[in-house]
Design goal:
The chain is of the alpha/beta class. Helix content is 27%, strand content 14%. It has helices spanning 23-26, 32-45, 105-121, 138-148, 163-169, 185-190; strands spanning 4-9, 15-21, 125-128, 154-157, 175-178, 193-197. It has a 6-stranded mixed β-sheet. α2 (32-45) crosses α3 (105-121) and α4 (138-148) crosses α5 (163-169).
Length: 222
């Protein structure tokens, strides 16, 4: 593994040189197969699974035979709610179900490291030494992103103590805020740039019990 570095800035966007990144997290060869499987499972787990159609037993009406069995010259029918009738029930329609897929934790960690390494190889990872903002102002967050060159969709990884920074970034439409233990592979690949602090960049790939919830996906472009 070769040395991996990222640009280091202060909270005003001033350059502080470079910071070394953990090569076991940011310098591995990305495993595309595992990355694809984990992200597919994450997106599947975010599906609501509430799609539902009514069968002929659930559609209102249709209790009486529409006409007698023989003698009319027409085809025989037993109910106007048969699937072949307009307004009838649906045959083999979707039912509510859980789309979640089981993914081993080792695969999740490997996928996250693969995504982080891919972004590091593209020099898309930026590190802020620490946030010294005395008040939460969106203007400060916008100025910082412009100064460090983080354009487009940006993932900002903050610790729970960075309250002012969280409040400053949360109103920006193309910025996603996450804590180190809640970063997923999809988050990393969704963003064009990743902004860490010198504290969170050391914690992002640690063991996490995070499970994807239905509110996490899918992120749409604004």
């Amino acid at each position: 593994m070769s040395d991996v570095k990222a640009l280091l800035f202060n909270s005003e966007g001033g350059s502080l040189g470079d910071i070394a990144l953990d090569p076991e997290v940011f310098g591995i060869e990305p495993n595309r197969d595992v990355l694809h499987q984990v992200i597919t499972a994450q997106l599947a787990g975010a599906r609501l699974g509430t799609h539902k159609t009514k069968t002929r037993a659930e559609v209102r009406g249709g209790g009486a035979k529409p006409w007698r069995q023989k003698g009319t010259g027409r085809a025989r029918h037993g109910s106007i709610r048969s699937p072949i009738w307009r307004g009838g029930g649906v045959a083999h329609g979707p039912e509510p179900r859980d789309h979640g897929q089981r993914t081993p934790k080792k695969m999740k960690r490997l996928a996250l490291r693969s995504a982080l390494s891919a972004r590091a190889s593209e020099e898309s990872i930026l590190v802020i030494d620490s946030f010294t903002w005395s008040e939460p102002r969106t203007k400060n967050a916008t100025a910082l992103l412009a100064a460090v060159g983080a354009t487009g969709k940006t993932l900002v990884v903050l610790s729970p103590t960075d309250i002012n920074a969280q409040l400053a970034f949360r109103n920006l439409p193309q910025v996603l805020i996450a804590e180190p233990g809640h970063v997923t592979s999809y988050d990393v690949l969704w963003a064009s740039h990743l902004v860490f602090t010198s504290q969170t960049v050391k914690q992002v790939a640690g063991q996490s019990a995070y499970e994807v919830s239905k509110s996490d996906f899918v992120k749409e472009d604004s």
